[in-house]
Amino acid sequence: MSTAKTASKSSASLPEVSISEDGPVRHLHLGTPWIQGSMRLADPFAIELEYVQRMMAWLLFVEPASVRQRHAMQLGLGAGAITKFCYKKLHMCCTAVELNPQVLAVCRSWFKLPPDGPKLRVVLADAAQEIRDPMWLGTVDALAVDLYDHEAAAPVLDSAAFYADCRALLSDDGCMTVNLFGRASSYERSVQALGEAFGTEALWAFKPTREGNTIVLAQRTPSRPPRAELQARAEAVQARWGIPAAKWLRVFKPVLATAAKNTNATRA
């Protein structure tokens, strides 16, 4: 049974959840046309959206053989793509935190989210409050943060204090991936907040997708694996789990390196 905790918003104030279908793909919406998650009907446990695939970039920093012994946590369930993939494909212990009980109900009814069990738990709670529970500290190896309201204008939680709470969840070699997207969002402001919490040397970032999603990865313990090692991991991830990771390193770099390149270009 999913665990319900006191949340800061009543169910009446939360947006209505709806679904749509575009040929072979089903989408989740929160009261607007904005797509908040997707699933390919013929392969419900694969990750359909490119930006969500990129949120699995933490796989570049761990040995593939150790993955199934790790713990994944998703803040903001959406269509459950990350949780389903980690649970079904990677055989990980998984926790998801979701504020809106409608999202959970629709995810279970229409997006093939499995029921809770020994290795899968959905907590109905405010993520900002839930992650401060001491029971989670230091237990998460892969943290995915994708917290948007129905307008998708900017991340709902995007402060240095929130990211510091996220960092406290992580194991020593744990990683957080966060989706930065929105019409009113500021990438630079978000990266500054992430840098305050993790240190800028711990940050990696993808170039934006065509849709405008920028995925940033933050390491609990900063590392700079050789490019050849990262490429080998990317190819192994693609071969083993079907995520198109082999092309990632063309668009995935340390934030410090990207910032230095932009500074040099400005000076030139």
UniProtKB/TrEMBL annotation:
Keywords for this protein: Polyamine biosynthesis
Query: Could you state one GO biological process linked to this protein?
Result: polyamine biosynthetic process
Is Chloroplast among the key words of this record? Answer: no
Report the superkingdom from the record: Bacteria
- Gene3D superfamilies in alphabetical order: Vaccinia Virus protein VP39
Write down the InterPro entries for this protein, in alphabetical order. Answer: SAM-dependent_MTases_sf
- The name on file for this protein is Spermidine synthase
Which lineage do the record's taxonomy fields give for this organism? Bacteria, Pseudomonadati, Pseudomonadota, Betaproteobacteria, Burkholderiales
